[in-house]
Design a protein that fits this description.
Blueprint (H helix, E strand, L loop, with lengths): L10 H14 L5 H13 L3 H6 L7 H15 L4 H5 L1 E4 L2 E4 L12 H9 L9 E5 L5 H9 L4 E6 L2 H13 L6 E5 L10 E6 L14 H4 L15 H9 L4 E10 L5 H10 L2 E8 L5 E8 L1
Parallel strand pairs: 3-4, 3-6, 4-5, 6-7
Antiparallel strand pairs: 1-2, 7-9, 8-9
Helix pairs in contact: 1-2, 2-4, 6-7, 10-11
Length: 289
């Protein structure tokens, strides 16, 4: 317990040592993550840890904490360790079968809601490459008259999204299917959402370890130029949008012009773009020509 003032197997001692180890491993918020992992191991709230830092940690919880800490030191994502992640107003189950929902993607939800003068205008929603169901379920939570369909190539992802719909009280307004983009989809939708793979193939191994090692390459790799999925989407969208409908696509950094070019060639019109909190153009809104 070098450098830690608290004795033995106390809450404070575990937090201090874990914080030092996480910092040495290059974790950006080591103290916060140490609290999250210990609270999860003790099945308590983080604030409960601060009430009595000298409280003893039971052996069983200490064992759980040690196992989680070793996984985090190997750069496994926190969402995998905790089994969940927050997105919009929802708590979503996460597994290695899908991308972890990120705050940057909330820009897609914001752009989708802003694209209509009223949530009541959004009645039929399609989410292509749904993953955890994050985008679709966030929109459904804001649009009580809407029904949504989520599609993912991964059966595990489609099943996960269905569980998340049930856990958030949205199962009766959402259906999830396994398929390749919109190949098996009929009908037209007021809103089409997608967070497609958009990382250039050569860049995937260079991503931060949490992403490159632990998140599915299928959901990351956008081909040699990062645009493969956008080409498929641009071709499909004109046949999916209802009159007055909108598509909202997540973008990688610097991709707006290229994706707009693909959309225009397919007969779609760029309507708006929205930045994420980091200032990156993250959401592109498209409509019919």
């Amino acid at each position: 317990m070098s450098g830690c003032a608290d004795p033995g197997g106390s809450v404070g001692a575990y937090l201090c040592q874990a914080g030092q180890m996480l910092r040495a491993a290059g974790i950006e918020a080591p103290r916060q993550e140490a609290r999250m992992l210990l609270a999860h191991s003790l099945a308590c709230r983080e604030e409960d840890l601060l009430r009595d830092p000298r409280a003893a940690v039971p052996d069983e919880a200490a064992t759980r904490f040690g196992a989680l800490l070793r996984r985090r030191l190997a750069r496994e994502p926190m969402a995998h360790l905790l089994g969940q992640a927050g997105f919009w107003t929802l708590t979503l189950e996460t597994t290695p079968a899908t991308l972890i929902p990120r705050g940057d993607s909330e820009a897609i939800v914001e752009a989708a809601l802003a694209a209509f003068d009223s949530p009541a205008r959004i009645r039929r929603v399609l989410d292509l490459g749904t993953g955890t169901g994050a985008l679709l379920l966030a929109v459904l939570a804001e649009c009580p008259d809407a029904f949504g369909v989520g599609v993912d190539l991964s059966p595990e992802a489609a099943a996960l999204a269905a569980r998340n719909a049930a856990a958030n009280g949205l199962a009766d307004r959402a259906a999830f299917f396994c398929g390749h983009w919109a190949e098996a989809i009929g009908g037209r939708f007021d809103l089409v959402l997608s967070n497609p793979p958009y990382i250039e193939s050569a860049e995937v191994p260079r991503l931060m370890p949490e992403v490159a090692r632990f998140e599915p390459a299928l959901a990351l790799d956008g081909g040699a130029d990062g645009l493969d999925a956008y080409r498929v989407l641009a071709h499909a969208l004109p046949g999916l949008l209802a009159p007055g409908g909108r598509a909202v696509l997540e973008l990688g950094q610097g991709q707006r012009a290229a994706v707009e070019g693909l959309a225009l060639a397919a007969g779609l019109v760029p309507v708006a773009a929205r930045h994420d909190l980091g200032g990156i153009e993250r959401a592109l809104v498209l409509g019919e020509n």
